[in-house]
């Protein structure tokens, strides 16, 4: 299986990346982001997009992928609705459209949070991609976490934030 991960420098994205690299059924992991994540692994490839809103010229690099974990997210603190919508809704839908066009059978996993769909501006904007992405993907999975906290590796040495995706099973064929 070939997997794309957005948001691999965040807490959830780091955990998703870690589990994808550990999973024997995942052959290739492509991380898309503005900057390098600073890791190396035989399965790991990076596609750096300094302008993450530049959706063009990527068809060749994105062909043949089975699943995408969209773990990008920003805090709404200090943002107006227009800015937050651009970074949360527009960015997600932009990449979902591109990926669906290139890989029509792809599973698109949109990672969101509890409280979305509520009355607050951020909650309404954050819930938008759940309905907005559905026409562009064979299978849209919205993972809504109620509480997500970093956990430590099993060794005594602190490795960093991790988020286990093992319980979700495999996404894709």
Shape: globular
Order of helical and strand elements: EHEEHEHEHE
Query: Which range does the strand content fall in?
Result: 15-25%
CATH class: Alpha Beta
Unreliably modeled segments: 140-173
Across the major sheet, the strand order is: 3-2-1-4-5-6
Gap from first CA to last CA: 8 Å
Structural class: alpha/beta
Number of spatially distinct domains: 1
Query: How is the quaternary structure best described?
Result: single chain
The profile of the biggest β sheet is: 6 strands, parallel
The whole-number mean of residue pLDDT values reads 74
What is the CATH architecture annotation? 3-Layer(aba) Sandwich
Question: So how many helices?
Answer: 4
- What's the CATH superfamily, by name? NAD(P)-binding Rossmann-like Domain
Proportion of residues in helical segments = 25-40%
What does this molecule look like?
This protein has a 6-stranded parallel β-sheet, sandwiched between helices. Residues 140-173 have low confidence and may be disordered. Helix 3 (81-102) runs parallel beside helix 4 (121-132). With 173 residues, it is α/β, with parallel strands linked by helices. The chain has a single domain (2-168), classed as NAD(P)-binding Rossmann-like Domain (Rossmann fold, 3-Layer(aba) Sandwich), CATH 3.40.50.720. The protein has 4 helices and 6 strands, in the order E-H-E-E-H-E-H-E-H-E.
């Amino acid at each position: 299986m070939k997997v794309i991960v957005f948001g691999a420098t965040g807490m959830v994205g780091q955990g998703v990346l870690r589990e994808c690299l550990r999973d024997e059924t995942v052959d290739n992991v492509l991380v898309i982001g503005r900057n390098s994540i600073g890791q190396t692994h035989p399965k790991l490839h990076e596609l750096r997009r300094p302008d993450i809103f530049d959706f063009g010229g990527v068809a060749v690099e994105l062909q043949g992928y089975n699943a995408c974990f969209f773990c990008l997210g920003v805090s709404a603190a200090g943002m107006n609705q227009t800015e937050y919508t651009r970074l949360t809704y527009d960015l997600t839908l932009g990449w979902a459209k591109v990926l669906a066009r290139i890989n029509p059978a792809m599973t698109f996993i949109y990672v969101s949070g509890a409280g979305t769909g509520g009355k607050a501006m951020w909650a309404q904007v954050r819930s938008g991609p759940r309905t907005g992405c559905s026409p562009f993907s064979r299978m849209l999975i919205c993972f809504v976490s109620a509480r997500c906290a970093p956990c430590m590796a099993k060794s005594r040495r602190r490795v960093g934030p991790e988020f286990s995706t093992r319980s979700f099973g495999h996404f894709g064929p």
